[in-house]
Structure formats: structure tokens, C-alpha cells
């Protein structure tokens, strides 16, 4: 620790524990002093404080030391008594009030953040007025009888030279009846040092008389104790002093009045000399002498072992004496009082060792006498002596703790002494950097008044801030407690100051409730002081308090409106957070060459539209950089970097308002704040309108009040809406501004009126606005000033488009004809139209001729139509871009109507995007083309669930049994199954059951299922294997009618829209084909009706369900069948029977296949592994009645098929008599016949399945892989069962 004398406590002790001089004066002396604006004591005070008196002092020891700093405390005789408590309280209140008024300017500035506060020095951090307050608290207990350092050491008697009988005046002033109670009651020795001062006013000009009086005084009172003081030597009273000596001693001094105006330099020097001589030649020597005398007396009576035993014996038995708060009365002549005087005199003369020894000596006596107040006072002085000696911190703190506790134990009479002790103790701890302990002492200081407690709590809070580590939460909490007590004592300014300090702690934390408490009360108190701007600023912080209770929210809002009402006007509030604006959700939507048919279309992300329009817009590579660069005109760079809008077309700003409260609020007159100028001037836009965070509040208010922002001007038109918001409700509001003429437009912000009395204003910062429109590729972020700046160009044609009767909810498979209607309100004709649809699986463009056809009749087969299928126009089906005929143009007189085909392809939520490109005839505009973007949302519900299962017929080539399962998955809709069609001319379909049995109830109601069975035949196989093949008309067709009694024709699935939608379904359902032989596609058509009530016509609704890529092949590329007689009669008595057979083998793959047929004279055994590898693809389904076993697929390795030779006990009833092995090659999609022969030895039924076909791909068209792995290149097939009945011929 540094030199204790240089600490705050050391300086305080050097000022407070110093010799007291009692001043007695006549009225004429006071009158002469008042000419200079102060009293006698105030005039002498600057000269009673010596920073370098340099006086040698020798107390009890023989070793002298020099006294550097010395101070006298001057008091009038009437003041040498314990202060009046009520008057002291008023003085304390004045100190606090004066300091609050003095710092009023600081209340308007922003409080420093906590980091800056910690960084500043301790002197700047702690308010300076604390020192004055603590001094006043210490002075409250001055002149106590149990302490000697406040007892007068000397008496200064002052008489004017103008007084009548001056000598008698000196005697009368020290009359016993006029002396203070301390001298009359015996608490102190009335025989004190007297110093006689004759004051002469040079304005009276009678110096000779004063000299004569001085001579009489010296003869009466002694030559050394008298002195003449001449003042007011200035004749004109206009003396000016460069240094105001009295500024720190008179609180009421102001610059408007000159103090000491009659005192010239000689007078001031005379004053300084007088007080120096009085201190160095009279008071200090007097105190030295008294210390030596008292020390000799005390050493003779109390020091030494014998004297101590005698003292303890004499005091024995006092333990049984009753408790007395003040203890026994000690007169000035008692040994206890003399020891206390000795200790206090030694302390005042800086001999702390001597003082401490005497305090220790007397401490035990007071304790034994139960004089607790005296005991506490001595303990207090012991602690201070330890501190000034910089010895034993532990002993110093123990003494202060003991004194503090004893004062509190005494009761109310010791409370003020405990306060002084606590202040000194806290300063002692702070001097040793024990701030946390000092805060605890401040907290323990008894609060006789709430105002005093407030100051102590505030001082404790600064201790927490200065502690290591910093205790911010305790700092803020104690500031709040202090501020609350300040407000209860009507110290509003101090309450605001402490709460502002606490706010620096709680700002930015999650302690929302205490932060709201602080902001709310600061706002109330600012309003009480009439500082409404600051009040509104703080109350605004608590308005969006959604975490508070409903009652608290109502209280905050009610107080806010009360403050606004007190302003007497409709107040404009910046950053009003009621309602709260969700800045990330703010979107700006404007139209340049991109226009939108609906709000939903403008909400779609730009990248999706760009991908859709990629092959529509010319020079896309240029467009992606900046669409303006694609124009032929060369524009200035400032135009290219700006957003472009069209005059007469609205700029839309979507703003999300959220009510954070639980109570409803009313918002009215919501509109944008905009600025328009005739010329595009970037410099002007920087300086006007667009206000960013660092700009001041007044600028925004000036903008909002100017005529440029009225709701309807000749430059632009603003929309205005009113909304009512329930508690916690979020509302998306769309505001518009429509420029009327060309020029520059800037969107500045938004304004609204809360509950009809408060205007809220919010400026838009472009870095927090999520712009709806982006320009092609990602570019470097534009400057802030450009994001909401628009270049307004002249009016352009703008198409309006709608799809009439577009459904919102449909069932899957619903097929409809819709109409696209395009209108052009402008007089300028648009041409060169193009159209593109995002999901052609759901929506395709029809031919114009369809507009005049009746739906759904136009979809049925006409009598003149042929059976051959029309192939799909591959280019039209693959391209999703539709170019309108060149002659198509849209003018303002006639709208364009174009048919569309719609089909709900699959269940789920679907978003359809449509964009239409068009060009203007007027090529003088900056923009020569525009696009119309349309967006529709569709909900598709499940309807019919259709599935197909196919199984090959082993007895016939490329014939399949098909089962169709249909389930109605709707909740209430019924459907009538109309027809099933195969796509393409390769297949023919035959129903295997009567038509009337397909659906006995005619309709398929909700939840019902049905199954139908068909035979599927491959026409190409039949034509290649049968020489005399009949036409398809005689053997079957690709469409099967499934309803009985319907005279209407079948639907033609080979025409648009069926064939086009089917193409997109094939692409969507495309999967890797497995095995060989291809797939088949089915289209199931059903109908439903709407408007079945009486008097309403029934509207037919058509549904088409497309199932693609149904596999009708196996892993083996070859198909075969055995041909020959089924029964033979033969006479076995004559010879064995020979039967001729043939085998037809067909290659269903696109590769050349090598086939080897091996006949066996025994039945090969088939293990489990072989049977599990069936390549026939024996599906779940049905089998021909002639088929008795399944086609099996064996391992590719011949040796893996184990054979079991016939035993010697049994002989086979037949053998193969032809070649045992036949090899040949088959071209793709070709067949071959192989002759075979058997020899039968006995009658019976024979199973001719004991043969094996080995196949191998000779050439492969691709080296692809199927979904299950590499494509199989070879394999083995077990023979089909073929039974021949051989009978004995009779």
C-alpha cells in the first residue's frame, strides 16, 4: 500500500481529526468581514490549512520530528455543540439534491458501456459528491463528549477597533454563560489557550486608535497572545484575485460576484501571517506541552505493572453494574479523560505510536466500566492509528469491526457513530484494494434515513465494480436497489442516474424482466422531469415485452400513451417496436421485363423462373449478367446498376408485422415512405430520403413530414391500410407505391399510427431486406444506396393471364380441358409469343382446333378412324417450349384464348409454373420484351389404385395372362371403369371373362376393389411364327371395353392428349429393363359424374391411369414350344411306335443367340438351388390347363445340374431317336423349328420334358447392366412338360 497519508482515508483523517479553534467575535468584526461577501471564519479558512508549515514537534519522546501538513478547524462558539439532527438531515439532503441538479446534463447523454466504465480510473468512475456526503455524515457526530479531537484546543477572540471599550469586550466574550456546553458541563477543561485578535477595518481610517488599543491589550492579556489584523485596505472595492482562495471553502460562491473585493495583497499576506503565527507559535507548542504534562501524569499513575494491578483491583466488581448505553460520566479531570485527550492530541500531531499506546491503555478501562460508547470510540481510533502506521491489517480490521459492532449494539444513540465508523472502515479497505469487503461494510451501515441508505448502496455498487474480478451482477443489482430508494426520497435525477448505470450491465443480456423494469422506470422518471424524448426512448424498449404478463403489458402500454399524451401532440416515434417488423421477411417485388400474374407467382424464387425461361429469352448469356446490357441502347453505368420499374406499375413491399403482446392493438394509416425525383441523381439519393442507422432521428422526422411523402401526389401513389392485431398475431401486409412519371424513386421506409395517437416510423436498411428480385448470376453486393433505388421508365404493355376454372383440388387421373386467356390492356400490340410449362406431365398445350370440340366426345374413336396407332410426335412430346403461330398477336380489343390439356398425374401437392414470353411492337423502349409468370398450386387426392400382374404361357409363344387389380382409394367418389388399352400396335388384348361380370354394380364405389383377367398376345410373334396369321380385327384388339350396355365408342388412346400424357408418364416411370422380351404399357380409362341432382345436367369427368413398363419377359432371351400330336394309337405287338415332333424356338432379345438342344433318355434330377433359379420368371398368376410343370432356369454351368441315370431294374418307356444334340443360331426377334422324334415301347402317358436348352449370347448390343447386376450372357433352361397319351390299338 502507498503512504497512508496520501490515501483517500489518510487525507480525510488529516482534514477531520485536527485541532479545533473556537472563534468568538463581536458584530462589528462580522460586519467588516461581510463587506467581502463572507464571515470571519470563511475569511480565515483558506489560511488555516498549511501544506508545508514545517514546524518541529517533540511530544513524549526526546526525538523531535517535523510537521509538514497542518490544519485548523474554526468554529464559532455557538457551533461547538452536537449538531441538530433535523438540520443535519436537511444539509445532507441539500448535498444530494445539489449534486443531482449539477449533473442534469449527463442525463441526456448515452451512458457509457460497461467495458468503457471499467477502463476509466477510479477517480472518474465514482461520483465526486460522495466525498462531500460522507463528510457531512461524519460531521453529524461532531463534538461528542467521549471524543477529544473535536474539543477546542484554543479560543480565538476577535474584537473590532470600532467596538466601544474593546478590552471589556474581550472579557465579556469569554463569559462562562456564553461558552458551549462542553466547557460548562465538565466534559473538557475550560482553561484553554486564548488568542486575542483586534480587527481593524482600513475603510474607517483610524489606525492610530487601533495601535493604542493593541497596547492596552498587551498590557492586559500578555504581549504574545495579542495581535492586530488590518483588512479592507482597498479603497474602491474592485480588487480582483487571480486565484479564488475561498472557492473550496464556500459552496455558494458564484462567478457573478467577486469575493474579497476589499482585500488587497497586503491584507491577504497579513491574514496568512496571522494564522501561521497562531498555529506555529501558539497552538502546536501548547499541544506539545500538554502532551508532555499528561504523559508524565499518566506514566506515574497508570503505567507500570503495579499501577495496572491497582487499576484492575479498583475496577473489580463493576462487572455486576447495570448496562448503560453511554456509560458513566467522565469529567475532564478523570484519568480516563486525560488518557483520551493525550491520545487524541498525539494523533492530531501525527505521533500515532503514542496515540495507539494510550488508546490501548484506556480501552480496557472503558470495557470494564461498560462504557460502550467510549470503548467503541477508542477501538475506532486504534484501527485508524494502525492504518496510519501501516501496521497489522488484521489488528486494524479487528478494531474497526469491534467498534462498528459495539456502536450498533448500543442502539439508536450509537447509530450515527456506527455510520462514521463504517465510512472510515470502508475507506480503509478500499485503500488496500479490498473492494468486495468494503461493499459489505457499506451494506451494513445502518440507514437512519432511506436517502442515506441509497447513497451507501450506490457506494457499495462501485466497490463491486472495482473488485477483482469485477462483479457486474452485484454492481447492477445494488444500483437498482439504490435507485429505488432515491426515487422514494424524491431524488428522481439520482434514481435515473443509478438506473442508467445498471442498464449498462443488463443491456444485451438474457435478464429480460429486470431490463424491462429498468427501462420502464427510467422512462417514467424522465417524463416526470419533462424530458419526454428520453422518456419515450426508454419506454419504447419495453413495448415488445411478449415475455411479460398481460397485466404488465397493459401497464407498459398505458404508461407509454400517458407520456405521449403529455407531449400535447401526435408524436412521431422512430423505431417503434409495436408492432414488431420482421426484417428478414421483408420482400420487395417489382416488375421490369418480368411480370407476375399473381402474388403467388412473385413469391417463387428467381432461380426457378430463370431455369424455366432459359431457352425462351434471347441472348441468355448476356441476360444473366445484367438484362439491361442485352438491349441495343448503351445506357450510363448508373442506370445499369439500378432496379428498373415501369411507370403505372406498382412496386410491392411485403412487410410482416407481429404483435408481441398478449393484448390487441390497432394499427392505422400504414403506408410506405418514398421519395421521387424527376432526374436520376445518385448524389441526391445519398443525401435525401434513405436514412441509415448512423443518421440522426430528426432527419427521419423531417422526411416523414415533408410534402414529398403525402399519400397521393402527381409523382406517385401510395396505398394505405388499417389493421387490427390480436395478441401474438402475425400479419403479412403488402404495401404498394405506383410511380406515375419517369425519373428516380426511392423507398425510404414505412410509417403507421398506433392507436390513433402515436406515429411509428421505421427506415429500411437494405442489408436486412431480403430482395425478391435477383438479377441472374450472383454478383457482388450492390451499394446500400442502390438496393431500394429504382429507375422509372415509360409505360409498357403488360399481359394479364389466367387459366379459367383451374381446379384447386382434384382426384388423381382427372383429365380436363382448360382455357388460357391472355389480355393486353395497352394499346401497343404484343407479338412473338412463346410459352413454357414446368410440369408437362400435368399440363400440356392443345391444338387450337380443340377449342371448338365437345369434351369428352372429341376423345372417342370416330367410325372413320383406322385401327393403326399414330406414333407420338417425338419433337413435340420432348419439347416443353410452345411457340405460338407467327400470326398470333394480342391487342387491347381482343383477348387470346388457347386450349390446354390438364391431367392430375399423381397424388400430392403440386406447384405448376408457366411463363409466357412476348415482344412489343414499339422498339423505342429500353425494354423490348417481357415475360408473364404464372403459378398455380394443386392438391391431387388419391383415386383409383391400379396394378397389373403378368405370367407367361408356357404352351404358347409370347402369350401372357394378365390380372388387373383396381381399388377405389377415395372417401366418397364412385367411378365407372370404361376401358383398358395397350399402348402401341404390338399387342392385342382379350378379356377372359364376360363384360357384365367385370363390375356387377356398374360403378366402383369408395373402398371397393375388383380384379379382371386378360390374355395378352404379341402380334409380331404370331406373324413371324404362323404363316397364315389372321388379321388383328378377327383375333383381338389393343382396346377392351369393360362396361356393358354403353353404346358410346371407345376412347382413342392413340391421339392427343392420351398419347402425349403417356409419353411423359413413360419418361417419369422409366426404369432399367430386366431380362429380355420388353415391356407393355396400359391405360385404364374411367368416368365419374358431377351435378347429379334433379334439374342439373350431368357432367362427365374422365380419368386416365397410365401404367408403364410392365415387364413381360424373363431373364432368358429364348422362348420355345413343343408341337406334335397329343394322343397316338399304335399296335405294339407288331413293332415300337415312332412319333414325329417339332420344337419352335423364338429369340426375344436384340442380340444373336446360340441355342443347343440336348435330349436325355432319363429325367434329370433338380436340386433346390436349381429350382430356385428359375429363369422363366414364373410370376404370380395363372397357368394354362395343359401346363403341368413350370419352366426352370438352371445354373449357367452345365456340370452343376446333377443327373440320375436310370437303374438297371427299370427301363424307360420311350427314347429320343433323333440327334441327341442340336445347335443353331437365332437372329434377333426371329424363330426356328427343330424336328424331333421319339420311339415308344409300351402304351401309357408320356412326359416329354427330359430335354435341356443351352443358350449363349453371340453378340451384345450394349454392355449395360440391369438393376440387379451385370446382364446375363448365357444360361440353361429345363424342358417344358409336354404329355402324349400312347394307346394300344385294338
TrEMBL record:
<dbReference type="InterPro" id="IPR058541">
    <property type="entry name" value="Ig_TPPC8_1st"/>
</dbReference>
<dbReference type="Pfam" id="PF12739">
    <property type="entry name" value="TRAPPC-Trs85"/>
</dbReference>
<dbReference type="GO" id="GO:1990072">
    <property type="term" value="C:TRAPPIII protein complex"/>
</dbReference>
<dbReference type="Pfam" id="PF24542">
    <property type="entry name" value="Ig_TPPC8_C"/>
</dbReference>
<dbReference type="InterPro" id="IPR024420">
    <property type="entry name" value="TRAPP_III_complex_Trs85"/>
</dbReference>
<protein>
    <submittedName>
        <fullName>Trafficking protein particle complex subunit 8</fullName>
    </submittedName>
</protein>
<feature type="domain" description="TPPC8 first Ig-like">
    <location>
        <begin position="606"/>
        <end position="819"/>
    </location>
</feature>
<dbReference type="InterPro" id="IPR057651">
    <property type="entry name" value="Ig_TPPC8_C"/>
</dbReference>
<dbReference type="InterPro" id="IPR011990">
    <property type="entry name" value="TPR-like_helical_dom_sf"/>
</dbReference>
<feature type="domain" description="TPPC8 C-terminal Ig-like">
    <location>
        <begin position="1121"/>
        <end position="1250"/>
    </location>
</feature>
<dbReference type="Pfam" id="PF24545">
    <property type="entry name" value="Ig_TPPC8_1st"/>
</dbReference>
